[in-house]
Write a sequence for this structure.
């Protein structure tokens, strides 16, 4: 879906008379349902291309798809601890009155930010753990996981795992710069899709 937009952007950055054959090459990579081990395997395969200054990787993903039509109504009550695993699934039958502590859209924000924090940590396993605990419907979770695994390989090769990470070194890890939702859900029958933008520099 994004390929024609990327091609259009590349074309607009070059002379209009430039032949499309001289534009930078676009290589689509389709990643379907994967396992953690296969994400690490593909991440290792892509690592040399991730580190090359000639390449830019663009990962497309929405974040939480919340609502009955998505079959996902996970909710984190304010009474739950900091763990994102202590939520409940809301239903139209058992939750006729909308919860307000917190509002549903605030709970969705907490779910998404738990994923975003895990991604920013640089730990592939931390991201997988949040997904396991919450079931958050991040549609691009597998390509995100593949690239995170590849970035871990590069940091490990450079000796940047462990102590330097504890010191807050952000090189080779994602940083989120924007977060939005399509609507502010207040009732179980409503729905929303979340969007987030991040980048990583090696």
């Amino acid at each position: 879906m994004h390929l024609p937009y990327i091609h259009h952007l590349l074309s607009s950055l070059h002379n209009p008379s430039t032949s499309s054959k001289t534009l930078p090459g676009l290589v689509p990579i389709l990643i379907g349902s994967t396992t953690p081990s296969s994400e690490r395997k593909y991440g290792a395969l892509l690592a040399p291309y991730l580190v090359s200054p000639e390449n830019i990787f663009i990962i497309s993903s929405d974040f939480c798809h919340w609502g009955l039509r998505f079959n996902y109504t996970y909710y984190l009550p304010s009474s739950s601890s900091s763990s994102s695993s202590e939520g409940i699934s809301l239903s139209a039958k058992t939750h006729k009155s909308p919860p307000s502590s917190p509002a549903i859209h605030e709970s969705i924000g907490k779910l998404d930010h738990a994923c975003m924090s895990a991604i920013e940590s640089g730990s592939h396993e931390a991201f997988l753990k949040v997904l396991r605990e919450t079931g958050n419907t991040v549609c691009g979770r597998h390509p995100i996981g593949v690239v995170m695994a590849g970035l871990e390989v590069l940091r490990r090769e450079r000796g940047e795992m462990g102590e330097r990470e504890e010191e807050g070194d952000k090189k080779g890890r994602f940083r989120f710069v924007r977060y939005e939702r399509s609507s502010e859900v207040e009732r179980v029958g409503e729905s929303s899709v979340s969007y987030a933008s991040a980048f990583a520099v090696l």
